[in-house]
Amino acid sequence: LSFSATEALIGELLPKGANRPEWWSEDNAVDPRAVQKAAWRDSGFSAALVLGGDRARFDRIALK
């Protein structure tokens, strides 16, 4: 999804940090303030910033 499409879905602008890969990445030391990661993970998705910085890729994952 493009950032503009994502913003249309959520009804708000993404934060400035969304253009950094670590904002999207799934790492083992998830910052408890990174609620976006928990939200898409709990919904059955992983996310990654697409090269170029204005799109994110969401992939369906198996829910635990």
Quickly list its features.
64 residues, alpha+beta, two-stranded antiparallel ribbon, 3 helices, 31% helix, 16% strand, globular
Mean pLDDT: 86
- Could you give a short account of the major beta sheet? 2 strands, antiparallel
Structural class: alpha+beta
Q: If strands are numbered along the chain, what order do they take across the biggest sheet? A: 1-2
Strand content is 15-25%
Number of helices: 3
Span from first to last CA?
25 Å
User: Are there runs of 5+ residues with pLDDT below 50, and where?
Assistant: none
Order of helices and strands: HHHEE
Residues in helix, %: 25-40%
Radius of gyration equals 11 Å
How many β-strands, per DSSP?
Answer: 2
Report the principal-axis shape: globular
Describe this structure in words.
This protein has helices at residues 3-10, 21-24, 35-42, and strands at 45-49, 56-60. It has 64 residues and is an alpha+beta fold. It is globular.
What is the structure about, briefly put?
The chain is α+β, with helices and mostly antiparallel strands and 64 residues long.
Helices and strands, with pairings:
Elements: H1 3-10, H2 21-24, H3 35-42, E1 45-49, E2 56-60
Antiparallel strand pairs: 1-2
